Amino acid sequence: MQPTASSSTLPIQHAAGPSDGLGVGLTVLRRGLTLSAFALRRQMLVSLEMNNKDPAYDYFLTWMSHQSARAEAGGAPWWKFRSAPTWMRSRQLGVQTIHEQRKNGSSSVIFKLVAGPGTHYLRYRKVWMQIKRERETKSPNLMTGSPWETITITTLFRDREVFANLLSEARDLALRGQEGKLVINIPWGIEWKPFGQPRRKRPLRSVVLEDGVAEKIEEDVKAFLQRRQWYADRGIPYRRGYLLHGPPGSGKSSFIQALAGALNYDICVLNLSERGLADDKLIHLLANTPERAFVLIEDIDAAFNRRVQSSADGYQSSVTFSGFLNALDGVASGEERVVFMTTNHPERLDPALIRPGRVDLAVLIDDASPGQTRSLFERFYGAGEEGLEGWERIPEDVLRRLADEVEETVREESAKGRRISMAALQGLFIRSMARDAVREVRTLFVERPPQAE
């Protein structure tokens, strides 16, 4: 019996040929070149990253939009202007809409091109840089709902000093646009963000209050701002609260805005009924207000009188009265803060809110008095101390006679228990000539509410 061959087969081994060795060598070489290039890149290049939580991010975008505006200064479109910034030749552009307010009251809308998400190249002071703007849409900021964004600037390591020059120039440009203007901030999650474009400051003298009222508040605020060390030496929390109360249209908010501009302060507007605002967020906001900014809380009497009611969509405000008091002067409250509150109904306020330490100075801003009316009338229709031109050219003797008439009208109506607001007077003076205003002013008086007497 002859043995049978096994059905299993042995693997056939081939000898390594020259082509296999060449492939391995190329793979090793390729990896070596990749690692060398990566190492060389790390040694020769430097990158700067900034995200949209840092103020430098907005400064840099403003700076880039300024470059496009400068390119259009000659009147030609940017795509025809030879000196247009290099990044504008990119196919990935964004738009920045800017509302400009002119001194005469008119406004216009300007569209500026900015670098959109993508990769761009820019030459600055003879240094070439790569600008990479990235946006993360899958995981937005849970507090604000806006996407996270980063800008990465890459250049040669030897030119790294250009970063400081570029950021300084961008910062100076952004702050230069705010010179002589008032910035209004609103809560954005747990942060304060500018609302709209900076506004032109309102002269303090343009808000006409009763004699001595404006000076009293201004002097108190200035004295507080100059006594930081005095508070520290005595262990007193460095914060101060003001309550301006009075009827609607008396100029409370307007005066606060003008005072902030006169002292080169900004304003942080806080709405206690804002959706999503809770005690913890409120404490964080008041403890982290921007430097040189007043906190303004308007109509404070309406914030807590309907705490158990919900809106039509079922939303219920979650800021509690005790939480608000703790945010003002509790253990976790911040310092170096000036808070202004306004109300039309001071009698509705809880005594715990207006006690000293939370409200350090309460001032009545009342309806128009005869003296206020005269001052406002002369400011609108006379040249005044500042050389302002009125609506019409009125001889001085005629202006004085008309001012006497309107002042006497207010005095007579006030004696009858009737009132007129400064807002109503201002509206009348804006739309009327001087003689027409004197004739019509009596029609604007209303009966004074019994509780206001």
Automatic annotation (TrEMBL):
PANTHER family according to UniProt: BCS1 AAA-TYPE ATPASE (PTHR23070)
UniProt cross-references to InterPro entries, sorted A to Z: AAA+_ATPase, AAA_lid_BCS1, ATPase_AAA_core, ATPase_AAA_CS, BCS1_N, Mitochondrial_chaperone_BCS1, P-loop_NTPase
Family to which the UniProt record says this protein belongs: Belongs to the AAA ATPase family. BCS1 subfamily.
PROSITE patterns registered for this protein in UniProt: AAA (PS00674)
Protein's GO biological process: mitochondrial respiratory chain complex III assembly
Protein name from the UniProt record: Mitochondrial chaperone BCS1
Membrane topology recorded in Swiss-Prot or TrEMBL: Single-pass membrane protein
GO molecular function annotation: ATP binding; ATP hydrolysis activity
GO cellular component, one term: mitochondrial inner membrane
Domain AAA+ ATPase: start-end pairs: 238-369
Keywords: ATP-binding, Hydrolase, Membrane, Mitochondrion, Mitochondrion inner membrane, Nucleotide-binding, Transmembrane, Transmembrane helix
Catalytic activity field: ATP + H2O = ADP + phosphate + H(+)
CDD domains hit by this protein: RecA-like_BCS1
Domain (BCS1 N-terminal): residue spans on this chain: 20-207
Localization terms from the record: Mitochondrion inner membrane
